[in-house]
Amino acid sequence: MERDSKVVPVNAGNVAERASLSGGPLLAESEPSPFRIVRPDGSSPFVFICDHASRRIPQSLGSLGLSETELSRHIAWDIGAAAVTERLSENFNATAAFQNYSRLVIDCNRCLEVFNSIPSISEDTLVPGNNDLGEAERQVRVDEIFTPYHNAISQILDDRAAQNRDTILVSVHSFTPLFKGFQRPWDFAVVYNRDPRLSHIVLDLLGADGDLNLGDNEPYYLSDETDYTLPVHGEQRHLPHTQFEIRQDLIETPKQQSMWADRLTDTLKRALEKLNKGNI
């Protein structure tokens, strides 16, 4: 994290409160909070969210039965997404929220009812530590990771609404270039459902440059049945929003991450001008 980032401390009286979590059956007191908030008082209308920022597994779960090689792959996290989000937050002086545990523990961008909320298989990899979980074992992951993370985002948005601040949500993800044998051709994509305004303007601005293979709801699309973060925090609040998907081999190195973040900073600045002018 850059030296001037403002991180909410884990104590009473702010959205990083986790007194009720300390010493719980999943996370030890010595382990990180389920989430990290940077620049909580950021001046930008943008709020960045990174659901799959980390590949960390709680100590109580060991390695979920997976090798270090598997835990380094895209199945455990969105490679490069956290670093891009960090720089976007820095560039805009914007609040950003990061989820601190692997999507293999619980996927914080999935509805709890779907099969891959806690996946027993990811792509073609079996996850032994997620097999045959009882209801109590599943619920503790909800209680100690999923719910606190989304409560933190809700608190940020509630506070901004109470202050009559404009808010634009941008969720940052990355995707693997090869999935189940299919070579994905896209360099970058936007994902949306009912509200395409910001997504379409981002596509138009990047498309005008002519150097990118752009995905429009590819390789993923947003839906109420599978996704959680933007349907709940964006659509239900009627906030402008979009989800960025960057091919992970394009943001593997710090240089690539900075380049993409800076390019998207420029794109979002121009998109904001169009939003403010009511052109979409």
List the main descriptive attributes of the protein structure presented here:
7-stranded mixed beta sheet; 280 residues; two-stranded antiparallel sheet; 11 strands; 6 helices; Aminopeptidase; alpha/beta; globular; single chain
Describe this structure in words.
The chain has one domain (35-277): Aminopeptidase (3-Layer(aba) Sandwich). Helices cover 31% and strands 16% of the residues. Helix 2 (81-92) crosses helix 6 (254-277). The longest helix has 28 residues, at 135-162. The chain has 6 helices and 11 strands. The protein is globular. It has helices at 68-71, 81-92, 135-162, 197-209, 229-235, 254-277, and strands at residues 35-38, 46-50, 95-99, 121-122, 125-126, 168-175, 178-179, 182-183, 188-191, 214-216, 241-247. The protein is α/β, with parallel strands linked by helices and 280 residues long. The strands form 3 sheets. Strands 1-3-2-6-11-9-10 form a 7-stranded mixed sheet, sandwiched between helices. Strands 4-5 form a two-stranded antiparallel sheet.
Order of helices and strands: EEHHEEEHEEEEHEHEH
Q: In CATH, what is the class? A: Alpha Beta
> How many separate domains make up the residues?
1
Estimate the strand proportion.
Answer: 15-25%
The radius of gyration is 18 Å
Q: How many DSSP E strands?
A: 11
| CATH topology grouping | Aminopeptidase
Mean pLDDT: 90
Uncertain ranges: 1-23
Structural classification? alpha/beta
The gross shape turns out to be globular
- The number of distinct helices, counting runs of at least 4 residues, comes to 6
Helical amount among residues, as a percent range?
25-40%
- Ends: how far apart? 35 Å
Instruction: Return the CATH architecture.
Output: 3-Layer(aba) Sandwich
Q: Give the CATH superfamily.
A: Zn-dependent exopeptidases
- Order of strands, widest sheet: 1-3-2-6-11-9-10
The main β sheet shows up as: 7 strands, mixed
